[in-house]
Amino acid sequence: MLLVVIGPAAAAAVVTVVVVVVVVVVVVVVVVVVVVVVVVVVVVVVVVVVEVMVVVIEVMGAKACMPK
């Protein structure tokens, strides 16, 4: 239907534009997903490191408070 209304060259141009737009949208979505995953991983690593440090400090503090 599109081909009949606007001609083959214009139809090819429209199809090309649609394909380019779809590819750009897919790339943007993939980049956003990767960024979100990286941020989540960094946050999890920071939380784990902080928790481990807190436990180590608590254990060291408990050892320091123990009678010798």
Automatic annotation (TrEMBL):
Residues crossing the lipid bilayer are 22-50
Keyword annotations of the record: Membrane, Transmembrane, Transmembrane helix
Q: Mind telling me what this protein is named?
A: ABC transmembrane type-1 domain-containing protein
